[in-house]
């Protein structure tokens, strides 16, 4: 039970003063304006300000928003996507403390006001504070009613870029270190009752010091109340577990665990593990390796709305340990066991985030590489811009279409 | 690896930005009230000055119509001042609209947490904004709609607007940025509902002799069950001897009563600002069945200074929740209730009437204000240059076309120009 400590609220209103900061170009001189406001508060108010026509003065919350906005200096554009434009930036008081500023675009197709992606991302990143989750420094809005998210500066690219970069070579110990950071991020989300629902290599960004950071919470949501349906149209296809492809509307953290398993698998084999062009093909790719699920291997599977008893190429038996040992030699026997725990088709038998972290793989040899020692590409600022601007569910690899994620707010139960 | 709920709660925006001591809360409301009053007075004075320039007689009647004022200096001297709302009246007005939002939520068949989030959004917004500046009538539909998005309920705006009288999509969305800014972009509200459910299930297990024991607990599961069966109905009452089934029924009843308290009084008072979700649900349960709740608490928290601190916190929270008029116990007779409701109704309509006279004239039409703000953004150059340029070109294009001898070109349904 949380006991309340009498905390002083984080805002420091400059004033009991009703006087708005005088409008006009002097607006940037914050300390001066503040001092003025305090001065005015003690004396009788200056009539000239109030009679400025058209300027209704600033609301307290407007003022707070302005104070937040003025903390940052916005620099050059790093990337632009359908969902957001990303700028470089830094704290005004310290030009060496860098940030990335993600300015959400107003979506003309979405008639219901502020986009769901933005609401979700702001909602969850404001609450989740963990070294392996991208941190949200602040949010502010601008006069033209755009929301800007001030995010942690992560200049070293993403996991997908890492395995695609042929000039970098890495070892089992490196894979273990990266996988562990990802597993901790996912565990923390689930511990906070948050489902990420879009885990994939290019949503896992790399900080300058080598730390991995899970990003893009545009599809995230809280765990649903038992019995309340959710959408199954989430997670970029390559990373989508079978139950979602079968149309399951009740699920938990297990969907993220599957995605995490795929991300780790890709890191090992340095190519997409289960690439496909369509949802049907994705089911096929999964069952080719993990076998066609039946009521015996996965009780309840036949009740799922889009369940196909037998795929286009007939009934498939699951591949055994030898296949995995051969395909993922860098993981070792314990790593393969963990991977198969994450990639168990029956969500009820799949590892939970907690079980993942308790696995002996992490403590067995080889010891995970210290993060300062991890190989790095230095994807640069542009790469981060590319990563952040994407909308959830989009993959921008040459081999995939832009995944049509139909998170149509109007017609779906989320 | 373990995180305690306390650890998690302390990192929440609810704890960091929306938790207060009673004096902090009062101070914030005072600040907001003072600022808003001054602004209303200044704006009204300005308007009157303008009007008196235009039409002396109109200004005359205006003065006669406004209420009395208790002094204080204004930038522009007028004979009669605006009678602004006091802090208490502002809070009362917000409370009234929170109660209406509760009804709206029921009408829309929103799940409990959607309505509750909407109400808390309203309460949070009006901590930094006055109902004199922004009428609750205009903010409330927006707050409920944003809550509907935040909680993933997914009712589309079109359908939302369709069921509300005199509502348009513009009216709902116009204050959206204003609202989220007022909420400091904190969208998550931590509710006590899930906690209550969890505690309830745990009590049921305890009653069945399956208690989840603390490390080095003094009592066994069986002992806990036995003691629980004998708990008195009322504090200091005689010991009972219930069957397990009867005890389960008792726990169910307590749960039912507690959830009503959480959906009503807990939403309509300052409970969320002053107490944590766990304190709130415990209090609701305490109000429902004191012996049971205290027994459960002592089984979870060993006797210690913390234990007594928790109890005193719960008691003060209980005072708050039970003070709300929607909190009905057996003590209040039907006639009393009817009389109280009638009196409340009269007070509220007087209050709403008073509020109408001290609205900030600059902020009445939020739809227009919203459009104006977007326009200002262009003028101020804060719109992206390319966007502004494109709009300018478009505008010039239209103007040029409309200046043509035959007027602008007609458009086909598909948007292609007539060749």
From TrEMBL, chain A:
<keyword id="KW-0418">Kinase</keyword>
<keyword id="KW-0547">Nucleotide-binding</keyword>
<dbReference type="InterPro" id="IPR017441">
    <property type="entry name" value="Protein_kinase_ATP_BS"/>
</dbReference>
<dbReference type="InterPro" id="IPR011009">
    <property type="entry name" value="Kinase-like_dom_sf"/>
</dbReference>
<keyword id="KW-0067">ATP-binding</keyword>
<dbReference type="GO" id="GO:0008353">
    <property type="term" value="F:RNA polymerase II CTD heptapeptide repeat kinase activity"/>
</dbReference>
<dbReference type="GO" id="GO:0005524">
    <property type="term" value="F:ATP binding"/>
</dbReference>
<dbReference type="Pfam" id="PF00069">
    <property type="entry name" value="Pkinase"/>
</dbReference>
<feature type="compositionally biased region" description="Low complexity">
    <location>
        <begin position="1"/>
        <end position="16"/>
    </location>
</feature>
<keyword id="KW-0723">Serine/threonine-protein kinase</keyword>
<dbReference type="GO" id="GO:0070985">
    <property type="term" value="C:transcription factor TFIIK complex"/>
</dbReference>
<dbReference type="InterPro" id="IPR000719">
    <property type="entry name" value="Prot_kinase_dom"/>
</dbReference>
<protein>
    <submittedName>
        <fullName>Serine/threonine-protein kinase crk1</fullName>
    </submittedName>
</protein>
<keyword id="KW-0808">Transferase</keyword>
<dbReference type="InterPro" id="IPR050108">
    <property type="entry name" value="CDK"/>
</dbReference>
<comment type="similarity">
    <text>Belongs to the protein kinase superfamily. CMGC Ser/Thr protein kinase family. CDC2/CDKX subfamily.</text>
</comment>
<dbReference type="GO" id="GO:0004693">
    <property type="term" value="F:cyclin-dependent protein serine/threonine kinase activity"/>
</dbReference>
<feature type="binding site">
    <location>
        <position position="103"/>
    </location>
    <ligand>
        <name>ATP</name>
    </ligand>
</feature>
<dbReference type="GO" id="GO:0005737">
    <property type="term" value="C:cytoplasm"/>
</dbReference>
<feature type="domain" description="Protein kinase">
    <location>
        <begin position="72"/>
        <end position="362"/>
    </location>
</feature>
<dbReference type="GO" id="GO:0045944">
    <property type="term" value="P:positive regulation of transcription by RNA polymerase II"/>
</dbReference>
<dbReference type="InterPro" id="IPR008271">
    <property type="entry name" value="Ser/Thr_kinase_AS"/>
</dbReference>
From TrEMBL, chain B:
<feature type="region of interest" description="Disordered">
    <location>
        <begin position="53"/>
        <end position="75"/>
    </location>
</feature>
<dbReference type="Pfam" id="PF16899">
    <property type="entry name" value="Cyclin_C_2"/>
</dbReference>
<comment type="similarity">
    <text>Belongs to the cyclin family. Cyclin C subfamily.</text>
</comment>
<protein>
    <submittedName>
        <fullName>Cyclin-like protein</fullName>
    </submittedName>
</protein>
<feature type="compositionally biased region" description="Low complexity">
    <location>
        <begin position="53"/>
        <end position="67"/>
    </location>
</feature>
<feature type="compositionally biased region" description="Basic and acidic residues">
    <location>
        <begin position="393"/>
        <end position="403"/>
    </location>
</feature>
<feature type="region of interest" description="Disordered">
    <location>
        <begin position="378"/>
        <end position="419"/>
    </location>
</feature>
<dbReference type="InterPro" id="IPR013763">
    <property type="entry name" value="Cyclin-like_dom"/>
</dbReference>
<dbReference type="InterPro" id="IPR036915">
    <property type="entry name" value="Cyclin-like_sf"/>
</dbReference>
<keyword id="KW-0195">Cyclin</keyword>
<dbReference type="GO" id="GO:0016538">
    <property type="term" value="F:cyclin-dependent protein serine/threonine kinase regulator activity"/>
</dbReference>
<feature type="domain" description="Cyclin-like">
    <location>
        <begin position="99"/>
        <end position="182"/>
    </location>
</feature>
<dbReference type="GO" id="GO:0006357">
    <property type="term" value="P:regulation of transcription by RNA polymerase II"/>
</dbReference>
<dbReference type="InterPro" id="IPR031658">
    <property type="entry name" value="Cyclin_C_2"/>
</dbReference>
<dbReference type="InterPro" id="IPR043198">
    <property type="entry name" value="Cyclin/Ssn8"/>
</dbReference>
